[in-house]
Amino acid sequence: MLTAGVRLEAVTVRYGERVALAAASAEAEPGSLVCLVGLNGAGKSSLLKAVVGTVASTGGIWVNGVSGRERRLRLAYVPQREAVNWGFPISVLEVVLLGRMSTLRRIGPDPAADREAALAALTEVGMAEFRRRPIGELSGGQQQRVVLARALFAGARVMLLHEPLSGVDPATRALVLRVLRELCDRGGTVLMATHDVVEAASVADRVWGLDRALVADVEGPRLLDEEVLRSIYGESLLVLAGDRVALGDQAR
Amino acid sequence: MSLDWLTDPFSLEVQRRALLEVLLAGAVGGLLGCHVIFRRLGFMTDALSHAVLPGVVVAFLLAGAAAVLYGALVAGAAAAVLIALITRERRVQEDAAIGIVLTGAFALGIVLISTVRSYAAVLEDFLFGNVLLVSVEDVWLTAGLSAVVLGALLVFHRRFVLRAFDPQLAEAMGLSGLFLDLVLLLLLAATVVVSLRAIGNILVVAFLITPAATARLLSDRVPRMLGLSALIGAGSGFGGLLLAYHLNLAGGSLIVCLTTVVFLAVLVLEPRRGAIAAALHRGRGEPLGAAVPPAHHGH
Predict the structure, then answer these.
(1) Fewer CB within 10 Å, N- or C-terminus of chain A?
(2) Using CA atoms, how far apart are residues B208 and B233, in angstroms rounded to an integer?
(3) How far apart are CA B126 and CA B119, in angstroms?
(4) ipTM tops the 0.90 cut
(5) Contacts of residue B169 in chain A, CB cutoff 8 Å?
(6) Is the full-model pTM beyond 0.90?
């Protein structure tokens, strides 16, 4: 059994009668960046939320060898952008400090060590000079960097991200990918949901293709093979010529 | 203006009790009101404040005026739990659940009160408050509840902030949304009771929304907003009593009018983003809030 990374064994997620993810079994090794791809409703969010523990699932989930509720302490999470209240009156540094359970339970000011760690995380994503600015005044890309810093501040070796690259500028995109790759180089594990097939093929060590079940588990570049794409996207795959891929509207 | 103008209204003990009552209610309402604004719970607060009425009436009928605030506390807590549970039921919309509890409980209160012979006068005190009727015991209860609310706000501050700012991360970190909502609703119920004597059942919501909304216009940071909101709430309480004495008008309603006037004044006059500043900026062709660079959204 893996003692690091993420291991899934027959993970099933149901919403009432509807099965969102059926019996997914896979392993994300330490040091690997795994992209989750698939149509809307294919189970990308359900899989991430099952690992985090915010939706009920059956089967086994291990994060760095730990299962049950304890596994939450071993991972950092970057939720969907749309779920965040960006108009909230909070500064960039305060957002980062919310990333650890120990600071959440604290009454009164944070010790210097925590503030320094939060600032170091902001420096890593190039946002240290913005630390006193209200989060609502930043651009979408800058906000994405800040929540990435918050996940780094959490100090976990497994990071789960929801569409961290959607709608961000090219510089932020490059920076997010560099930071995630560095985390992997230090032995961390990254699970990242994305809509962008070409991007997943170019940056991922492995790609998990979802269609209400795990239908493909391949090395990154192999995602662009026609039979792999067909297994994930089925009828929504419209054109395939050379290395050009086009997906139907609902795949976007 | 002589100092007497400021001190005369508070020369009697009953007036000083009233002052203490509105200062506590204004400050605590202002603090908790910030969380009401963060979580967009304005309508919920309205429902809770009306839902305490049957508790108030039952306590009055069973044990007289001294028991009124305890009855309100029990009814408020019951309504908080009821609303939290009803809103977990997916087939009932949250605003519908709140509306049902609000009107049902309020109507029950009126029905109960109509069994009393001197019905109109009693009802008026409940609905609009009568801060000069505050007893020593009432002040102690208010102070005790205020201390509980302040303590809980300190302990739960960051968890409330994360739940309001990023609810998905809060759940991911193992914070129970239902538990945090219940704590917040119970604190709201306690604060409604704190404000009941001062400004009455109908206007309680003003202490919980208007000062916090005003403070939000003046600040982009939670700690500053909390301080300003408490200050505006307590300041309006003081100013309202002062005007009530000199103009011989109803104190509770004047306090609420004052919070509204302060809100409107800030909305129009606030130097960075108020209505006048906005018009001036438009005239000069500058972007609004020129103190900070405009945001460029990546979408």
Answers:
(1) N
(2) 9
(3) 11
(4) no
(5) 77, 79, 98
(6) no
